[in-house]
Amino acid sequence: MQPRNMSMSGVVDLAAVKAANEAKAKAEQTRAEVARQGGAAAVSPSSLVIDVDEAGFERDVLQRSAEVPVVLDFWAEWCQPCKQLSPLLERLAQEYNGRFILAKVDVDANQMLMQQFGIQGIPAVFAVVAGQALPLFQGAAPEQQIRQTLDQLIQVGEERFGLTGITVDSEGAAETAEPAPVPAGPYDALLEAAVQALDAGDFAGAVQAYRNVLSDDPGNTEAKLGLAQAELLRRVSDMDPQKVRQTAADNPADVNAQIDAADLDLVGGHVEDAFGRLVETVRLTAGEDRDAVRVRLLKLFEVIGPDDPRVSAARSALARVLF
């Protein structure tokens, strides 16, 4: 099954102003009650992925959604795409470390929930934020698209409902966990080859070297960052900077011109200018053009790194123009 639209536009439809205000008030009441009781205790990493049925839905999903976004994975044992998507969602739940909870729903055992959400096919993924249901996507999808959707979901939870996630007791887990498996292989040689290719101006070679690492170790942070940088340098290598900037200045709504100019801004060290240019272009565009700009902006975030405050500021600005 091919993935359907992964846009978060459903947030606007489902979270009308009155409903959003009521949900936000309930979430604030819940957090205040937790604070009066001494604050929420840290949860174990195993609590980030849970199985949910109809009987426990209110407790495990609706109530928890006042603290943290809850992502619902509707699946079945016989569903082959589910066997690809579910492990990926479980891994991302652990990686996001309390920014959302993954709740797995076996549709064969929970037909009523399937009907309530209007699900026509699986896998189907929804979210519940402050008691409100948001459709995310249906069908298996590439990891990068799923990450982008989760990032937008978390941003909505923070911006509209003040949900900042839950605390995970990683120290307690470390005391009881088995030793981490050794990575699949030494990557020093491949990473060094990629750096040498970059230094020599062989951007295509660097891209391939980083991809070789990621094909064996998808979570390799150094390779992810290196790949984003190498792809950026490859894109700008054949540009005429003066021509690109003039075209962008003359055509503010030209998506390709603004994307190219943002790449040049970033390479030149003008990070805020690059981010601001693309956020403004997202505001001015719609449909496929808007999505193309948003995707490029997320790629530029990868070049700078998620912990950089300029990325955090740009994510907030992007959320404001999207929602």
Give the count of structural domains.
Answer: 3
Indicate the CATH architecture of the largest domain: 3-Layer(aba) Sandwich
The amount of helix comes to: 55-70%
What is the C-level CATH assignment of the largest domain?
Alpha Beta
| Major sheet attributes | 5 strands, mixed
Low-confidence stretches: 1-21, 173-177
Q: Give the percentage of residues in beta strands.
A: 5-15%
**What coarse outline follows from CA principal-axis ratios?**
globular
Helix/strand-derived category reads alpha/beta
Query: How is the largest sheet built, in terms of strand order?
Result: 1-3-2-4-5
Mean pLDDT: 81
How many DSSP E strands?
Answer: 5
Number of helices: 15
How far apart the termini lie comes to 28 Å
Please provide the ordered H/E string of secondary-structure elements: HHEHEHEHEEHHHHHHHHHH
**Do you know the CATH topology of the largest domain?**
Glutaredoxin
State Rg: 21 Å
Organism: Streptomyces albipurpureus
Protein name: Tetratricopeptide repeat protein
InterPro entries: Thioredoxin-like_sf, Thioredoxin_domain, TPR-like_helical_dom_sf
